[in-house]
Amino acid sequence: MLVIDNPGSVAAPVGAYSHVARVDVGTGTLLFLSGQIALDDDGVLVGAGDMVAQATRVFELIGAILAAHGATFADVVNIRTFLTDMALLPQYGQVRTAVFTGTPPTSTTVEVSRLFRDGALLEVEVTAAVAA
């Protein structure tokens, strides 16, 4: 079964997309989270120019979306990160390492020229596998 969802515990996404696609597979569930940027509940960018502040907010959003589906960061199997400046990777890595304390998920990190919101330094999307 496929469910496209915007959990009520997280501010609605900005634009025409949903936060997560939930796919029930066998005895578990796969969660495909849309890319998240550092927006507050009113859609205002958090931490302009500050990678640590933006990464912290992004992982807060991801954590809330996962929790709404009974998942945690331990369930994340893949993470894709888009940075506007690869020189900021150490600051992003500092936050990411604090979030993923066990075996890290598979990952891809790429540099892009810009994101859809001016001032956004990163966008992160994840896939999680949740046992029933």
Evaluate the radius of gyration: 14 Å
Spans of 5+ residues with little confidence (pLDDT < 50)?
Answer: none
Query: Order of strands side by side in the largest beta sheet?
Result: 1-2-3-6-4-5
Total number of helices: 2
Query: What is the averaged pLDDT score?
Result: 93
> What is the overall silhouette?
globular
Our measurement of the CA-to-CA distance between the termini, rounded to an integer number of angstroms, reads: 14 Å
User: Helicity, in percent?
Assistant: 10-25%
How much strand?
25-35%
Instruction: Quickly give the structural class.
Output: alpha+beta
Describe the main β-sheet briefly: 6 strands, mixed
Protein traits:
alpha+beta; six-stranded mixed sheet; 2 helices
Describe the structure.
By secondary structure, this protein is of the alpha+beta class. The chain is 21% helix and 30% strand. It has a six-stranded mixed β-sheet with strand order 1-2-3-6-4-5, with helices on one face. Helix 1 runs parallel beside helix 2 (89-99). The longest helix is centred in the middle third of the chain and has 17 residues, at 51-67.
